[in-house]
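As a next step, we paired sequence with structure tokens, yielding the entry below.
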Amino acid sequence: MTIDRRRFLGGAMAAAGSGLLAGCASTQNAALVQPLRPVSREYAAMYGAIDTEPFPIPAVDLAEIEPRFLRREVTFRTTEQPGTIVVDPAARYAYLVLERGRAMRYGVGVGKEEGFNFRGSAVIARKAEWPRWTPTLNMIRREPERYGKYAQGLPGGPENPLGPRALYLYRDGQDTYYRLHGTDEPATIGTMVSSGCIRLINQDIIDLYRRVPVGTKVVVLSAGGDATS
């Protein structure tokens, strides 16, 4: 039987609002989606094309992304202070802690192998718009044919894998070489795909970027749900 695509997506989004599509939550940081959710028309506007940037940002095809990974405000229980970013790689979410037990939740893509992922606490020591990207030496060693040609770096732009914004994580004053950044592959949100960085939909990283200053604390949970360094 053929199912009308719009009716299917609408049902999926309604299910997400009722918690049927909610992701895993740790014992220390648990989120519950609020019962009322924006309608799909609002999501279409939220993830529409942006033409006010140095480079155009296309609209997101929402059919490519599970509804639960779209940006929304949720109830969030945590001991972290408002303004902190909490990343739960297992659930594929990043939370910006708000006041009164709330958080802005974003779907993310994480490292394709557990060993690639950063764990513990860091701070955002630098922010950049349309950042330059240079693969790490380890990336070049692992995949020289893929990354070797970019050893001198790639300027910001539509082909840059960091997207329109990047938040640089430092620990004890040292660059961890992990970032929260955008992506030109929104369909990968919710998957294990990156070389360790936390990737967000371009419209979402722009939203997060404007909400957080340099010095913001970032906590990346382990697979067990804690933030052990």
Observations:
- Helices lie at 5-17, 40-46, 137-142, 144-147, 202-211.
- The first strand starts at residue 30 and ends at 33.
- Residues 5-17 form the longest helix (13 residues).
- Confidence is low (pLDDT under 50) at residues 1-39.
